[in-house]
Fold each of these.
Amino acid sequence: MSTPSTIPDLAALLADDFDFKFVGEGAANIIFEIIQSQEPDPLLHDKLLRVPKARAIALDYLHVQEYWESSVRPLFQDGDLVNQVLVHLGACSAKQNLIISRMQAAVSSVEPTRRKDFRGSTVGETEYAMLVDDMRAARSNIKGGGGFEILLEFKPKWLTQSPDAPANAIRCRNCAKEWLRYHDKLQKKLQKPPKLQQSFTPDDKLQRRQTQKALPLPVLCTIDLLNSSSCIKARERVLSRLTDPSPTSRSTVALTNAIPEGSRQWRLLSRWLEGNSLLKRLELAQRANDDPEHLDRNGRGKRKRGGCLTALVGQENPELDLAMTLRDCTCFLRIPGPPGPPPLERAGAGGPAEEDDDDDDEQGEAAATEQDVEEESVEVEAKLGDLDKKNGAAKLATWQALERRLIDEGFYTKRRPRAEWTCALERTDEDEDED
Ligand SMILES: [Zn+2]
């Protein structure tokens, strides 16, 4: 862990002509791109700046970083995580005041386009900011290939079943939670008074069916995600979810561009799902923290799987906090684009390399072979981010209430008459026989 005295000063790293561009924000943080006309300091190379918002309810960055370095990073290999380093922000020099005011100006310039509930929030007066790897899609990628990358973000969530789930569960934690979310949205929508043009509909069942149709469906069974390495059908289901840019997938998936089935980027993603070891490491880390040595109330050692329902309010639950932190991370995938210049610049030169045509002459075959060879050497870049410590003391009651609902209202266990999707736990072996 860097000690405060060794943390670099942002003002000293920036050239005199610096400025900031707003990139994005969450409830507690804002992300900026650093703009400079000259070559940046090596520490700033390919980095974005993350700054806390004023009055945000979150741990301070010194503790966030300390936790990430001591508890999260040791669970992974080099290159698995979106790297983050602290920089000093808070001393009262003229340049540092300028840094804050330019960040605030960058936020103000996009005010009308911000999410409604985020408007008006400002950069906090804080001692530390954080430099994080820039995972945005680039025009060309570092590991060869050139062309346009696609950035795919998704939340793997619970890669193992909840330790609190009933033994007769037919749904994984993710599918159970997605069904609950769908159920609540449906109820809310049905309680709204019908719009004027619908007010002539006499049939409640019809209205219910129409509402069900209009609601987005849940997205990703993460048991399928893990099984993607060995089961072709699971991989196909995951691919169809991850490459769907429609709003129905947006609760856990974000995509900069559509990935057409069979395209080069689709094949690269499929290969990553089949061969990656990153999700396995994440699963093992989640599992390890679900199954710590628990002590019973008399202080005797007792091996017991621990979920949030076995945690005691008012006590430290470090394993649970870490498991919940690992369940809320984001997986960033940068998928290299087709080789050569961007499609627009190639217009008239034969179209995109990934497009198949029916031309099976020798030249066509030779080109395909070259493309295959080139594709072999290109890889998806995958990293996990958003791994700030969860504040279990503040959240335990919420986690427990949600888990209770999932159990008590049957979201883990009830069969549905007309299921729009099925969880991997719900499927029979016969469904997967072909694999
Ligand atoms: Zn599932």
Amino acid sequence: MKRSVKFSKVNRKNALPGRSVRASRTEMIEVALPEDANPLGNILGGRVMHLIDIAGAIATHRHCHRQAVTASVDHLDFLNPIRVGELIVLESQVNRAFTTSIEVGVEVFSENFITGERKHTTTAFLTFVAIDQSGNPSLVPPLIPKTHEERRRYREAGERRKARIAARAKRTN
Ligand SMILES: CC(C)(COP(=O)(O)OP(=O)(O)OC[C@H]1O[C@@H](n2cnc3c(N)ncnc32)[C@H](O)[C@@H]1OP(=O)(O)O)[C@@H](O)C(=O)NCCC(=O)NCCS
């Protein structure tokens, strides 16, 4: 059966109630430890990516209330290092829900708890796909953006999705 047909039927029968952005919003804080650092005392990019995946997954689960897998992570730039002893602050929320996938935004900051100074490390956009017990994609609740900022993120997530789909089609052709 064509995928769009399958989901449009399910949609009509079992439309899920919409959820607010607030329901998924998450703040995760870790201490930057020496075992996660390079010899210069800067936290490894791979460690930050691991934390981004977890912060994104928590926001996803809060939104969907079901199992989900990471389908993709968009391009990442590390703007400022995180030093050993600083706090790693990750703020995540669902930007938009599609049919079985959602886009989550994760902003990462370093925070010096002595001076209180915060620096932006990176912003990541991840796509998670909700799955059923057989591992097949399953419907996600719609997102209801309320504030101006939430509507902006919702709109931009739609643009990024178009770009991802086009890039994927290019890679697979
Ligand atoms: C992600 C996964 C479930 C998609 O399965 P699939 O059979 O290709 O699913 P479909 O083609 O029907 O697409 C399902 C949804 O995923 C989205 N999707 C699939 N691959 C994607 C990708 N690479 N990037 C962004 N979205 C993707 C589709 O756009 C679709 O979204 P929609 O329903 O909201 O329109 C499957 O590829 C998978 O299980 N991957 C491994 C995930 C994993 O284990 N991650 C942890 C790291 S190993």
